[in-house]
Amino acid sequence: MKVWPGVKTTTLMVVVLVAGTAWTATAADRDKLLNDPGVYGTFATFQMDHDWWDLTGEARVIAVSEVKGLIEQLSNKVVIESYLLRGLSDHADVMFRVHAHALADTQQFLTSLLGTRFGRHLVATSYLHGLTKKAAYVPGFPDQMKTDLKAPSEAGTKSYAIVIPIRKDAEWWALDQDTRLALMQEHTQAALPYLNAVKRKLYHSSGLDDFDFITYFETEKLDEFHSLIRALEQVKEYRHNRRFGHPTLMGTVRPLDDILELFAR
Amino acid sequence: MKVWPGVKTTTLMVVVLVAGTAWTATAADRDKLLNDPGVYGTFATFQMDHDWWDLTGEARVIAVSEVKGLIEQLSNKVVIESYLLRGLSDHADVMFRVHAHALADTQQFLTSLLGTRFGRHLVATSYLHGLTKKAAYVPGFPDQMKTDLKAPSEAGTKSYAIVIPIRKDAEWWALDQDTRLALMQEHTQAALPYLNAVKRKLYHSSGLDDFDFITYFETEKLDEFHSLIRALEQVKEYRHNRRFGHPTLMGTVRPLDDILELFAR
Amino acid sequence: MKVWPGVKTTTLMVVVLVAGTAWTATAADRDKLLNDPGVYGTFATFQMDHDWWDLTGEARVIAVSEVKGLIEQLSNKVVIESYLLRGLSDHADVMFRVHAHALADTQQFLTSLLGTRFGRHLVATSYLHGLTKKAAYVPGFPDQMKTDLKAPSEAGTKSYAIVIPIRKDAEWWALDQDTRLALMQEHTQAALPYLNAVKRKLYHSSGLDDFDFITYFETEKLDEFHSLIRALEQVKEYRHNRRFGHPTLMGTVRPLDDILELFAR
Amino acid sequence: MKVWPGVKTTTLMVVVLVAGTAWTATAADRDKLLNDPGVYGTFATFQMDHDWWDLTGEARVIAVSEVKGLIEQLSNKVVIESYLLRGLSDHADVMFRVHAHALADTQQFLTSLLGTRFGRHLVATSYLHGLTKKAAYVPGFPDQMKTDLKAPSEAGTKSYAIVIPIRKDAEWWALDQDTRLALMQEHTQAALPYLNAVKRKLYHSSGLDDFDFITYFETEKLDEFHSLIRALEQVKEYRHNRRFGHPTLMGTVRPLDDILELFAR
Amino acid sequence: MKVWPGVKTTTLMVVVLVAGTAWTATAADRDKLLNDPGVYGTFATFQMDHDWWDLTGEARVIAVSEVKGLIEQLSNKVVIESYLLRGLSDHADVMFRVHAHALADTQQFLTSLLGTRFGRHLVATSYLHGLTKKAAYVPGFPDQMKTDLKAPSEAGTKSYAIVIPIRKDAEWWALDQDTRLALMQEHTQAALPYLNAVKRKLYHSSGLDDFDFITYFETEKLDEFHSLIRALEQVKEYRHNRRFGHPTLMGTVRPLDDILELFAR
């Protein structure tokens, strides 16, 4: 990890509070935030415009350090994780996953970010919003399946993150709860073998953007993740996806410092 | 609320006449305008181009103050509400909701706005137009439902605004009036629990843009709003939406002064 | 109406020959042109690029006057009507409706326009081409309906113009002529109440662009126009529209002088 | 062949060798090339960027003359026809139809073109590639139809050119050969009355771009061409078009000299 | 092959390690890499921006040589093949096919590339990712078909490369394994006659981008390739392609030196 000359103390704080893989106030805090219902998650992706590279190296370093100060200020309201999409996605260079109790706080962070000298060169390419909720179908699952779902996944942050937004068709929502429960049980059964290798997280989007769900994945084993998606394509519930991806966002989990350094270089 | 140096009087006028949350000639006037049939509502969203930020701070302050003068001039013909979409929508930075008795007046406002030094940096990203009309189905609803619909929603302006345009399929329009009435009664029943937390307003668009309806929502509780949309997805009428969203526009209700200040900073 | 300093004579000619509401060589000539079969109609919409506003005011005035000279030159071959879309459409700032006996003449006008100092700042956003033809179904309608269709609409140019291009589905074209006649009779019956308030004109597009028809409307009463479209959505023929709008273009009928002045200001 | 400074003689040569309507090494050569199977046809359309017009007139003249030299060099490998789309298509300003025995030669021409000072201002908007093949269905047609198809169309180059790419649906390809033959016979029957007024040429695209066919038309009578497309929309084969147009490209056949002069002016 | 003045040694290395047709550490190594399962393949396409051409010739030569140094550094982790799409595809000028054991290595290469003075002028237009896997259906094929599939294709690198991404419909994935096996056997039978002329390679994409498969082809005979695709369109499996192409990418296999030289010129 690189330290910025002249902003050492700040950098130290930032590392603790926000950076992707390094956000470790405590691992427990992070897990709690990722598991609590009623939290808003925003996936915001950006492209760096071409003018950025016309700035002098010094101007880029100054611009980048401004971002760190900003994030420190807002760290009591929002939790920000950063991802490098550049080189893996044609949509965007950077993605932030922002968790907050109110989207107004997320908006404050993102507008502040866009107002920095760094942010003025960012072009927003997609914003997805979702809400975390208690599992809707799990209470109706068989006990063994519930136990299986509680098995801990491998410790540590995974290298790759993939975001797949989903819109269900009208027929899905018209199904009665029992039918949906049965379909989701089949879906979950297909996913069980991958619980350990692939961390999943679900956000509910209806009304907050053009999707019904945002599915978020982290894994070190992309081939296992691919097999998981293949398995999910083969269950009946998959037929009710009117849109699946478009965009599919893929990147690597990265401390913000790494990402900023890439653009300051 | 900030006051611009040297334009105090003007600012005072503007606050009274137009700003988003602050537009309170009287709450009754506002409610009347929002409830009268035969009014045209335009949702106009804009992105600020990147050149804007190359202007000096002083030039931006001057440019912004020009907008305020303009809005004051036109305040007898159009009512303008402003929303900050930046940080929540990838489509746009700012949205105006303009109510007028004639779209020619709305056009005059928007062309004047685009002609200001501020407006020359705005890129129009979507214009939606609709007409307010008397409720088409409510007269056929049961009396209890009519009473429920009259229950006042919580006082005050809500923090978040969401705009979802809708295009119905041809089958919807081919249904006879009684069938549509029954479907709309089911739709309304599903929405009743959210009447208090979420304010709704309907605009009729057929022919005025590529949609049939524009649905506008205001709420302080986005989770309740999300639950409302989920409930509406589960009724039979939802199957007749050929397009729902695309774009879904989300922002926060803001006085114009706040928004302008953000871009002058 | 403003007159440009130093180009008085020219302006005078232009007013007579081309301007939107002012094109009145004689009202009879205009009506004839709008009613004759075998004429090509082109709807060309343009956005003004942002560089335009970086020109000095003087440079803009010179650029604009060049357009007037051009239109005068070509006025014996094409009839040009102008519309202001700015402030009502996110697609475009200006629309020209060009009628000519040959599209090569229309092309000559538009390439000449684009070659002026004004035109070099125009970005073409959509070109729609259609051909006027004798009414295909009217001869088979009942006599009363034919009489009704001949009733004159209100005199004078209407304020608003709306263009809705349409693509029919393959099933439509596969219907036999009698079935299509019956469906068009139902369609026409639904439109009759709006004959007076809304002027309509039909262009046939198949092969000339990606649509089958361009429908053009003029009205002072947008609410009546909206009701007309609603009525047309409810007849069986509407189910055979594979695409309806996309884009829907709305603007106000304006003399070219007014539009040019707006951009010279 | 041609060399620019001092240019008159040279120009004369160029007109003979490459220009759109004037390419007449011999009419027989041209016809042969247009009729031989196993030739690749590429339809490449370009927009001129706005920076072009910021060049001085002299710089534009120099840039344009470089193009002529290039085309001369490559004239033994590719045959290039040029079309002016500006003023008729919102997609593009210029289209080249390039015939070659190998697409590598076409690529060499187009990359060379893009590398000229003129070409650096061109933005490629669509490339369509197809292969000419022997008629697949004609051998199975009745003798009279075969005779009709051999009737010569009117001599001379037609003024207008229209390109409509087509993608068939999966059902089309799943039909057996006899059924497709019957459908194509009906299609051809509908087209017979227009053989004289509209020249047609078919390219096979599957795998070479996102379409299955490119249909190319030349005509002086656009109304006849429109009637031809209308007739083709009414036969059963039309139901198997998953995509028809999108884009539909329309322009006028023009010698390259005319087109280049338009941009040099 | 051109050699860059002053970078002779480097160039020599580069030729050995990476260039498209020239990558020949040994032909066996290359074949192995192209045939092993568990390898990630990325198809990354780029457009050169227009500012590039405003650089001096010298600046372009320096920028280009930086790319070569970079590729040499990373040659132990990724294998890079280069393709010229310019002049054949409207999507892009250049395509890289990158094979790596981890997408993080591919990302490192591409971000490094984008960070060079050359790369800062590249606009990413599409990234497709896939995983190579053991053949899923071949083990169930008849022995004769297995033997046929092992027949060697013509030696040497083919001139043209075509990439067609595919998304299957939900019905495909819902079929049982035996039905899919039968359909794939029919598909393979149709492809057998083209084994010699067209090299094929399959990548599995589900979850890694918006497709299920990426099919990659190399051939010297584009007409044979076209016939192959036509043959594949006529088997029943084709009906299960929800998306086929969009984009279809076509280019010529080229040593990186050739491509870089084209942009340095």
Question: Can you put this structure into words, describing what you see?
Answer:
5 copies of one chain form a homopentamer. Chain A is of the alpha+beta class and 265 residues long. In chain A, 37% of the residues lie in helices and 25% in strands. Chain A is built from 9 helices and 9 strands. Chain A has helices at residues 8-17, 27-35, 57-74, 103-115, 143-150, 170-174, 177-191, 222-233, 256-264, and strands spanning 40-48, 78-84, 94-100, 122-131, 160-168, 198-204, 213-219, 241-244, 249-253. In chain A, strands 1, 2, 3, 4, 5, 6, 7, 8 and 9 form a 9-stranded antiparallel β-sheet that branches. In chain A, helix 3 (57-74) runs antiparallel to helix 9. The two termini of chain A are 14 Å apart. In chain A, 41% of the residues are buried. Mean pLDDT of chain A is 86; it is low at 1-25. Chain A binds chain B through residues 38, 40, 44, 49, 51, 103-104, 106-111, 114-115, 120-121, 124-127, 129, 131, 170-171, 173-174, 204-210, 212, and chain B through 50, 53, 84, 86-90, 159-160, 162, 164, 217, 222-223, 225-226, 228-230, 233-234, 236, 238-239, 241, 245-248, 250, 252, 262, 265.
Share of helix among residues of chain A? 25-40%
> Uncertain runs of chain A with pLDDT below 50, 5 residues or more?
1-25
Radius of gyration of chain A: 19 Å
Number of strands of chain A: 9
Assembly state: homopentamer
Helical/strand content category of chain A: alpha+beta
Shape of chain A: elongated
Cα-to-Cα separation, first versus last residue of chain A:
14 Å
Main interface by residue count: A-B, 35 and 34 residues
Q: Report the total helices of chain A.
A: 9
- Strand-residue proportion of chain A: 15-25%
**Secondary-structure element string of chain A:** HHEHEEHEHEHHEEHEEH
State mean pLDDT of chain A (0 to 100 scale): 86
The major pleated sheet of chain A works out as: 9 strands, antiparallel
